[in-house]
Amino acid sequence: MGLIIALNKGRIFKECLPLLAACDIAPDEDPDASRKLIFETRTGGHQIIIARSADVPTYVEHGVADIGITGKDTILEYGGAMGFYEMLDLGIGKCRMMTAGPVGVPEPAGVLRVATKFINITKDYYRQQERQVSLIKLSGAMEIAPLLNLSDTIVDIVDTGNTLVANGLEARATICDISTRLIVNRASMKTKFDEVNELIQQLEAVVAS
Ligand code: PRP
Fold first, then answer.
1. Which of 59, 163, 169, 191 has the fewest CB within 10 Å, making it most exposed?
2. Same-domain pairing of 112 and 167
3. 169 C-alpha to ligand 1 centroid (Å)
4. What is the residue range of 108's domain?
5. In angstroms, how far is CA 185 from the centroid of its own chain?
6. DSSP state, 106?
7. Ligand 1 atom 22: residue of nearest CA
8. Are residues 21 and 82 in the same domain?
9. For the whole model, what pTM was predicted?
């Protein structure tokens, strides 16, 4: 029985293909040369779905994908019923979820205005900090918000830090470390145990090598 594997579009997809190829799972045509969103695999009878990052947990929770590969940020941000298990850290896509603000400007004492696309992560973080915040939901390019005085602070992913520097911002607190994770639908864990387990063991070996 083949596995249905949902992958994030973009960087995660490109970084995952070699890992899957090392496990003998490869799409039957070049995804870069196709607009298709579902690919059969050359061997093994699997399927690879190319999804938007936020949708990967949705597909896996609903069981239309057995396996999902996506960032820890996406998993933490996911607001669903968590009908999946996080089984493996693939050790790629490493970065940090951080707060950041304008260089040299202290945070105001009162209610903090925070712009982010990671609303759930941000709410949880400031709740733990017992800090009262006003959240401003953006879809990306959060670095703009403090420049336009839309917010005092942002919560975003930081990798090299170049985007912050280029926009006159500085990293402040680390909320959590992020990397690419493999998640498995709860039912698939039982009904396709052998296939799922074999893939996890193969990927573990690839990641370790
Ligand atoms: C992410 C993030 C930052 C940038 C950080 O955006 O939102 O803008 O990368 O990387 P750096 O620290 O190496 O500069 P991404 O390019 O993934 O696009 P997105 O805004 O669509 O998430």
1. 191
2. yes
3. 14
4. 95-177
5. 17
6. P
7. 140
8. yes
9. 0.94
